[in-house]
Amino acid sequence: MKILLTGANGYIGQRLLPLLIEAGHEVVCLVRDPRRFELPESQRPHVTVAQGDLLKPESLQELPTDIEAAYYLVHSMSGDGKDFFQLEQESARHFTAYLNRTTARQVIYLSGIANDQALSVHLRSRKGVEEVLGKAQASLTVLRASIIIGSGSASFEIIRDLVEKLPVMITPRWLNSRCQPIGIRDVMFYLTSVLGNEACYGHSFDIGGPDVLTYRDMLLQLAQVRGYRRYIITVPVLTPRLSSWWLFLVTSTSFSLAQSLVESLRNDTVADPQRSIAAVLPHECMGYTEAVQLAFQRIDQNEVVSSWSDALSSGKMPRNYMDHIQIPQHGLLTDRQTLRFRRDPQQVLQNVWSIGGDRGWYKVEWLWRIRGIMDKMVGGPGLRRGRRSPTKLRAGDPLDFWRVLVADKTARRLLLYAEMKLPGEAWLQFRILDNEDGSHTLEQLAAFRPKGLAGRLYWYSLVPFHFIIFKGMIENIVQYEAPEQVPVVA
């Protein structure tokens, strides 16, 4: 089939795309900016990348009309400064208008379980999108899921953060709300199995794993999997706003995501037996503990395909951030360091590619951590966001409080753009250059474009620290010897 995939850059879309290709489908990926959508060489013959923004209907005019099915995987956990509910309905209306010009017979939407009466604004919004998509000429299939457990999912990473960082947790009342978590592998099964299945046309299904748990249960069971002893104290005095700040400061999540999650967690998200998909697609879903164990297995094997932090809403990036892939030539304050070396340039390049996350920043790590804490305190992403993989980078990846703009191993160039809270814009670039005598040079460039006097004062106040950090950083990148990996026998 010829399929349109929206949200191809998202957590679900990145995992669904290779499964659709493997099944022999031709896929059109709708993305806002093709520059941040990288495809492996093996997938390119089966994928067409189309540029469009669902909030700008004029950008959808050139999309193909000969598609047979579409996936609508567009939803956000944070607003854009406007009314969140209205933005989601607007996107769905524009998409429906486009669908009605196509030959599509089916549209598939991944939504949230919304069986409570007093729904949060985000669950109401998901339900509203279902109603808009239901007006399309193509038959609508809705899969409603509760908490999705998988390596890199927002829910899993937040639960993991809480358990691994806090031996004793002071928690709000919403920890007693019930949900029905489902593993990402089972979500993928349902998303691919309903495609072209006429028994699913025009129906909404609740999908969930076999376990109905409170959020308290999930924290304690993950602690048990990890071999930790944890204590949870539930108090009634934590308001939704205080709970959001608590979640934001303790975990790697953004404040807008924390706020949305806290609001939504007051609702029970348990599947309705009347909406069960079992009669149409019999399938045995994995339990919560098994899904957690599989997620950690993927993390240990460095096989995290996608992460919630891939989304721009996980930081402070402008939507047109790929316009910054060339560092400006004027109006910059810079710190440029170079170092000649004769060791294998690929080893040095791999050290560059492994920067941040668990590896750290190669010099005075405690200063970087203080800067991360300061950033978190003023609403930035901080260092806890980490990175998707300890050794692999691609354009668009988050990297602590940076975003990867260019990750070109052939050109031996890595360019990062700062998402931390700053009175200006900042870039950090690494390049390896060849010399005529057979040696090589690592160039490290920190560039800052200040906004007004505050920006200049910020830069010059940090100059003494720059001398310590950047000079030692380039030396340690060149000299670093990665420890040998002990083979794991399955």
Automatic annotation (TrEMBL):
GO terms for molecular function: aldehyde dehydrogenase (NAD+) activity. InterPro entries: DUF2867, NAD(P)-bd_dom, NAD(P)-bd_dom_sf, NAD(P)-dependent_oxidoreduct. Pfam families: DUF2867, NAD_binding_10. It comes from the Bacteria. Residues 7-146 form the NAD(P)-binding domain. GO terms for cellular component: cytoplasm. PANTHER family: NAD(P)-BINDING DOMAIN-CONTAINING PROTEIN-RELATED, PROTEIN YEEZ. This is SDR family oxidoreductase. It comes from Hymenobacter sediminicola.
